[in-house]
Amino acid sequence: MATVLEIIQGIHQAAANGYDGSLEEDGSRKQTGLRRDEEVDIRDKRVIDGFKVKMHDGNKMCVMYTTEVLIRDMGQKDKYEDSLLENVADIVAFLKKEYKKVTGNSLSLKEIKDTPPEFQVIQTSRVRTEVKVLVDYEISGLEEFQAKDDLRDKRMKASEKFMKLVSDKRPDNDSRKPEKKD
Questions:
Q1: 136: pLDDT confidence band, cut at 50, 70 and 90?
Q2: What pTM was estimated for this model as a whole?
Q3: CB atoms within 10 A of CB 160
Q4: How many helices (H) and strands (E) does the chain have?
Q5: Parallel, antiparallel, or unpaired: how do β-strands 128-139 and 109-111 relate?
Q6: pLDDT at 21
Q7: Which of 27, 9, 37, 26 is nearest to 94 (CA)?
């Protein structure tokens, strides 16, 4: 059984292996599920897209996919969102495959249905937009792991202690005239 740290390090190493231009053992390009993996003619504009992963709440992982899109290509919203979610699914498949190569163990990710995918569209010009898709997954094997943040607990206790000190009583060395309340 792998430790929490080993699982997280394996996931991050798998994500790091998806850099643009990464190669398989046989010398072919790694297929990460991104649009940039497709062959591009010399006259075509290079596709700008990428992904990263972020761990949060102990056993959850957020896959963040970013791509640049022409506004005219966005077309029908539902159809376009489905194509972006397919790219995210391909990225997750790549992460699972790379995790298996890196650690020798399998990685099981389950999409969290309580939190729907988040789409952030940022217009960069009159022609182009940047689209970010954030999808949360639960990492199986970390269910019993509860993120305990000792520093956060200390801060909360200190804040509560400070709030108890608040009063209307003036200190002994305060020589100002009292303000009249209306």
A1: very high
A2: 0.66
A3: 9
A4: 4, 5
A5: antiparallel
A6: 61
A7: 37
